[in-house]
Amino acid sequence: MRYHQTFVLLLSSIVVSSLTVGTGLPTRASSRDASIGKWIDAIRAVGHQGAGHEAAQKALQNLHRCGPDALVPILKGIRGANPLAANWLLNAFEVIADREVRGGRGLPADELERFLLDRDNAPRARRIAFEWLAKVDPSVIDRLIPGMLLDPSPEFRRDAVARLMADADRLRGQDQLDRAVALYRKALTGATDQKQVEALVKRLKELGQKVDLQRHFGFIVDWQIIGPFDNTDRKGFAAVYPPEKEVNLRASYPGKLGPVRWVPIHTDDPYGIVNIAKSVAPYKGAVMYLTAEFVSRESRPVEFRLGTPNAVKVWLNGKLLFAREEYHRGMFLDQFRVPAQLQAGRNRILIKLCQNEQTEPWAQRYEFQFRVCDPSGLAVLSAERDGAASSP
After folding, report:
1. Do 162 and 105 belong together in one domain?
2. Mean pLDDT of the chain, nearest integer
3. Same domain, 95 and 43
4. Could you say which of 9, 133, 281, 311 has the lowest number of CB atoms within 10 Å?
5. Which pLDDT band, with edges at 50, 70 and 90, does 389 fall under?
6. pLDDT in tens, 197-234
7. In this structure, are 349 and 253 located in the same domain?
């Protein structure tokens, strides 16, 4: 009888253990993981107007007390988080990482490296993982950066470009010019930072090489333009003129100074600047429309990046994507970044560019530049243009 009771107890213990494993009932470790996830979610829910701050502060304090097992989940939580929440999560990561390193316990290097090599993770989180890994193991710089020339993170690309430029400079100093040119051109394929691009172009030109900056950045340089329409007293920005209702390149409409029709306009400017004041006329109190067709081989997300000192609206396939009524606040590369979704095949881009009536010398610029790129800044070319032979 005693033997039977012992056997039953042992069998019950085995059954309970198997049920715990089979049904996923929380063990101590999984319970801890769930708590970490809950604290991360509380921080991700924090708002700019005070919403969720108290819960987020408590969650942050709890994360600060966690061990290295929380580091990668914290980094994963940064993806899609608002800027405030992302900053709080980065703070939690750095507090834990600093404590572990100072205590001589190290970091979960393999997990962090897998995380940073996954290009789907948030660039900012990948970068912080890289920087902490480099602190404890500087060899990761030489091991990983050379493979990041086309990484979606601009920071990693800048590092990779800088290394190639340094290698090319050494080869140039050794009079190995062909090899230097090859490395400069390779570096250029991943360069989107304007200063790096300009430095590479300078070196290549010194070695007798040509660089097509328009193509490199993905500037649209051929447009159809129509106008001027009336922008007296800035009324034109809100006004709906015929090109906003339909883009009919054969049509003619009443304009501010008489009938207007679509005409082609091209720019040779290396940075794709279309100067309406010089190429058409220095109109004042005017609205001009420009349109271009962009052919995409597939449906895909892109960014429209534009710069202008004038009031502007941008449509894609009839949908308004961007509007900014501001005049003469300066202009620079990638001044405005507009997420867009290209459809497979032909896409119609329409720009409305408004000039006011100011007469000061600094208020005479009537121009813009417009490029299409992926979210990391690498050029996306229209399929028709991409097929054309051109040097990079």
Report:
1. no
2. 91
3. yes
4. 9
5. very low
6. 999 999 999 999 999 999 999 999 999 999 999 999 99
7. yes
Q: What is the pLDDT of residues 369-385, one digit of tens each?
A: 999 999 999 999 999 87
Residue with tokens 């090899």: 179
Beta-carbon count within 10 A of 343 CB: 13
Strands 300-307 and 367-373, how do they pair?
Answer: antiparallel
* pTM: predicted TM-score of the whole model, two decimal places: 0.83
Q: Are strands 263-266 and 274-275 parallel, antiparallel or unpaired?
A: unpaired
* The pLDDT value given to residue 30: 54
**Of the residues 211, 226, 260, the one at which a domain ends:** 211
Assigned domain for 144 exists: no
Inform me whether the pLDDT recorded for 386 exceeds 80.
Answer: no
Give me the residue label for tokens 């948030």: 122
- The arithmetic mean of pLDDT across residues 321-344, rounded, is 97
Same domain, 177 and 253: no
Q: Looking at the domain assignment, is residue 233 inside a domain?
A: yes
- Lowest average pLDDT, out of 35-49, 305-319, 353-367, goes to 35-49
DSSP 338-376: EEEEEPSEEEEEEEEEEE----SGGG---EEEEEEE-TT
Token output for 7 = 């056997």
Rounded Cα gap, residues 131 and 149, in angstroms: 17
Same domain flag for 197 and 258: no
Tell me the C-alpha distance between 340 and 326, whole Å: 22
| 368 shares a domain with 254 | yes
Q: Where residue 325 sits, what CATH number does that domain have?
A: 2.60.120.380
| pLDDT value at 49 more than 90 | no
Query: 118: which strand partners?
Result: none
Assess contact for 75 and 55: CB atoms under 8 A: no
Domain hosting residue 303, numbered range: 217-386
**Looking at the structure, do residues 120 and 173 belong to the same domain, yes or no?**
no
* Count of domains for the chain: 3
Q: At what angle do helices 53-64 and 83-102 cross, to 10 degrees?
A: 20
What is the number of other CB atoms lying within 10 angstroms of the CB of residue 101? 15
pLDDT of residue 384: 83
Q: Is the dihedral of CA 152, 158, 160, 165 positive or negative?
A: positive
Domain boundary among 187, 211, 235: 211
Q: Are residues 201 and 233 in the same domain?
A: no
